[in-house]
Amino acid sequence: MSKFLALDTTGSYLTVIAANGDAVRTVFEENCAMQHSVRLMPAVEEALSAVGLAPEECDFFCAVTGPGSFTGIRIGIAAAKGLAAAAGKPTLGRTSLQVLAYNARGKALAAVPAGRGNYYVCGFEGDKSVSFPPACVGEEELGLLAQTYPVYAHAPLPLPYTQADPAEGLLAAVRAAEEGDFGSLTAFYLRRSQAEEERLRRGGGA
Question: What pTM was computed for the model?
Answer without folding.
Answer: 0.92
